[in-house]
Design a protein that fits this description.
Structural class: alpha/beta
CATH architecture: 4-Layer Sandwich
Largest sheet: 7 strands, mixed
CATH superfamily: Ribonuclease Z/Hydroxyacylglutathione hydrolase-like
Number of domains: 1
Strand content: 25-35%
Number of helices: 4
Strand order of the largest sheet: 1-2-3-6-7-8-9
Number of strands: 15
Shape: globular
């Protein structure tokens, strides 16, 4: 199984609800890169006035049938990059839909690598109700998360994931292997009913407990995750 897919293929739909849908463009890849379309039904955004309904595409990976998946949600309003390593196909999709790539104001280090118009995100993502929160701002890791307190929806692009190589044995949500010793403890204090991630499908059942367990056991389960990954690597 390759880490990343390359040729366009049939996507796998995940995390569908009335306020959006997710997809994995290459269902057979090990990384299970997940992308999300978040519905914006705002009537007014203080900067540009009245705005049509549409969707924001977060850390998107392109696929042959992506535009078909998005039908019915409205026009693409923009693509969003929440992790500096998740430029993915944000620029190509933005050009196809004649929109801009949006990123946090403090993530301008990615601008030179994006071949599309760029706009800075404010404190919220349009009229989706999601607030933009800084998670990490390091030279090697810049990450933001989206949190909507109204319904407890949280989108974490990299610090947490449900994909196999994030999870120690008996875990269905895990902290990124590189962050096991410094888990995202600040996220554990949020009231979370639904968790969307950048690698794997999201979680909607017992989400709060799953999040707290993943953070609390991050360090103690780091050795078992390491052993698991080594066995897979050399098996």
């Amino acid at each position: 199984m390759p880490m990343k897919g390359s040729d366009l293929t049939e996507l796998r739909e995940i995390d569908r609800r009335e306020d959006g849908v997710g997809w994995i463009a290459y269902p057979d890849e090990r990384m299970q890169r997940a992308s999300h379309a978040l519905v914006d039904r705002a009537e007014n955004d203080g900067d540009t006035g009245t705005r049509q309904d549409g969707v924001w595409l977060v850390d998107p990976v392109d696929a042959d049938d992506l535009d078909e998946l998005l039908e019915g949600f409205g026009d693409v309003l923009g693509t969003v990059v929440l992790l500096d390593r998740h430029k993915r196909d944000a620029a190509a999709i933005a050009r196809r839909h004649d929109v801009a790539v949006h990123r946090p104001t403090w993530m301008n280090s990615i601008d030179e690598a994006i071949d599309a118009p760029i706009r800075a995100l404010g404190t919220t993502l349009g009229g989706t109700g999601y607030r933009v929160r800084k998670r990490l701002d390091l030279p090697i890791w810049k990450e933001a998360v989206l949190y909507r307190p109204d319904d407890g929806s949280l989108l974490v692009p990299e610090s947490l994931g449900t994909v196999d190589y994030f999870c120690a044995p008996d875990e269905h949500l895990g902290v990124h292997p590189m962050l096991r010793l410094t888990p995202p403890s600040g996220l554990g204090g949020l009231a979370v009913e639904r968790l969307l991630v950048g690698h794997g499908s999201g979680i909607t059942d017992d989400t709060q407990q799953a999040l707290r367990n993943a953070i609390r056991s991050s360090r103690s389960r780091a050795p078992s995750l390491c052993v698991k990954l080594l066995r897979e690597r050399f098996s």
